[in-house]
Amino acid sequence: MANIYQLSNTTLTKQRVLKDCILGAIDIGTNSIHMVVVQINAQIPSFSIIAKEKDTVRLGDRDPETGNLTKEAINRSLAALKRCKNLAQAMKADQIIAVATSATREAPNGQEFLRRIEDELGIVVDLISGQEEARRIYLGVLSGMDFGGKVHSLIDIGGGSTEIVLGDSQEMRCLSSTKVGAVRLTQDFIHTDPINPKEFIALQAYVRGVLERPVEEFKNALKIGEKPIFVGTSGTAETIALIHSSETLGNEPLTLNGYQIPRKDIEAILQRLVSMNYNQRSTLAGMSERRAEIIIAGVVILVEAMKMLNIDTLTICERALREGVIVDWMLQNGYIEDRLAFQGEVRPRNVYKIAHKYQVDLSHAEKIADFALNIFDRTRYQLHYWGELEREYLWSATILHNSGLYISHSAHHKHSYYLIRNAELLGFSEIEIELIAQIARYHRKSKPKRKHETYATLSDNHRKMIKQLSAILRLAIALDRRQIGAIKELECQYDSEYRQLHLHLTPAQSGDDCSLELWNLDYKKPIFEQEFQVKVLATLHIGV
Question: What is the architecture of the domain spanning 347-540?
Fold first, then answer.
């Protein structure tokens, strides 16, 4: 099945004429909303940043009782996003892509916030998991730094979470997302100004406790004697670099990218910050008024992480999540095939990872996927108009549709939905994971219904896609009912005059009448026939 995916991807890349374009990428974070507008050069391939926008909206200032995003934070965010959209349009951006992270992910009204963004601004936002956030931050760093094949790691301290990644020239060895962030910890631990010693000690202890698990995973992924380059991204790291450069160089460097700071210097800066009040912190070089409010918590995370990881030097990278969103888009759209080619396969690779985890019978799943994609391809532009993304969703759902058997045969389609929905399918957005899980969930038993809550909340287009792709999956499953590869070949022909879909089947073994497969096909096909308004006819070719 890997070959089918790769062939389709190769064919798609050859058919598509890659063009230069302008892209806007928005990161809706807990503390700030960032946007970068880039010019993509299809021939190199590379991208150049032509505009940036940042607004500190404090989306993480949630209602302490309900955990909801507050009305004020939402309104600040909508206003900032409107400015981002206007800038992108002024720069003649061909497309705007956006992701939301920790604050939106955890808030009960996070989905309502995203719907408002789409309704009021026309921007569709992907809600990504913590690990997916870490992966895209890593892509952003790789786009801006060359590690010369050396082992490397990074830390990104956000408002609501901290991501830590370890990688080498071949793969990501470890990536984690932990719920410690500068805004979150400031709200929970810092109530005095300057911070009193008791609060400071409690803050340090809490950070060490929460970081224990990701630090252990990080160390276990290191080989004996390895000392990775340690990179810091985003606001906390950049602010520390500006303070440090001002005091050691006397001015701000032309670029922070590659700027190095010894840990002992960061620890010294932290001790000074702890002794200052808000007004004093605000006067430091490179310190914004809003950053001064949360800088202590951010630097505590940085220092404790470096201590626990035995890291002596921090190297700054100015690229992070928003640039990673750009790189991910380039990978998924065929612009990048060389240096980061391994990342371009992240989606199918993670589908297989989940399949192995839940002991899916891959030979059976791949046979069904072969049939499903065959039906999809031969009926495209005749019975449906879905594209390559939907084809990938169908493939992913097919590989994983029986994962629920890991829990129980009874209602295993529902178990499959749950396992897929809660799996770490890196490379997919939250809505994409939902769609894949829904297609797999409806491979048997009842068809999609409005009374099913998770299905009802989706858009009309997504509901239609799930109904049609799950109907295709049902036909494909019927064709391998005995799970022995009884059907060797499938040829689909659509007769538009009589609205008939002819399935010409060739058995793998001479003399096998495939009666169970044909019976199961008759049992499964009514939902497909109803959905596409066609008659399905099957012919078994035993001959020659």
Answer: Orthogonal Bundle (1.10)
Same fold, 19-129 and 146-318: yes
The Cα 105–Cα 51 span in angstroms is: 27
Q: Quick one: DSSP state of residue 260? A: E
- Give residue 155's identity as a one-letter amino acid code: I
**Domain limits, the chain:** 19-129, 146-318, 347-540
Q: Is the pLDDT reported for residue 13 higher than 50?
A: no
Instruction: Please give the Cα distance from 536 to 364 (Å, whole number).
Output: 23
Q: Is the dihedral of CA 290, 294, 299, 302 positive or negative?
A: negative
Of 3.30.420.150, 3.40.640.10, 3.30.70.260, 3.90.226.10, the CATH number of 146-318 is 3.30.420.150
Name the β-bridge partners of 539.
504
User: Tens of pLDDT along 162-177?
Assistant: 999 999 878 889 999 9
Task: Report whether 123 contacts 81 (CB < 8 A).
Answer: yes
Distance of alpha carbon 280 from alpha carbon 266, whole angstroms: 18
User: What CATH class has 19-129?
Assistant: alpha beta
What is the per-residue pLDDT across 390-401, written as a single tens digit (0 to 9) for each?
Answer: 999 999 999 999
Crossing angle of helices 362-379 and 460-478, rounded to 10° = 120
Report the Cα 348 to chain-centroid distance in Å.
13
- Residue 66, CA distances (Å) to 53, 110, 161, 305 in order: 31, 12, 20, 31
344 has pLDDT over 70: no
- Residue with the bigger pLDDT between 19 and 10: it is 19
pLDDT at residue 257 in the model: 86
Say what percent of the chain tops pLDDT 90.
Answer: 80
Provide the whole-model pTM. 0.79
Q: How confident is the model at residue 5 (pLDDT cuts 50, 70, 90)?
A: very low
Q: At what angle do helices 2-15 and 388-400 cross, to 10 degrees?
A: 170
Residues 6+ apart with CB under 8 A from 338: none
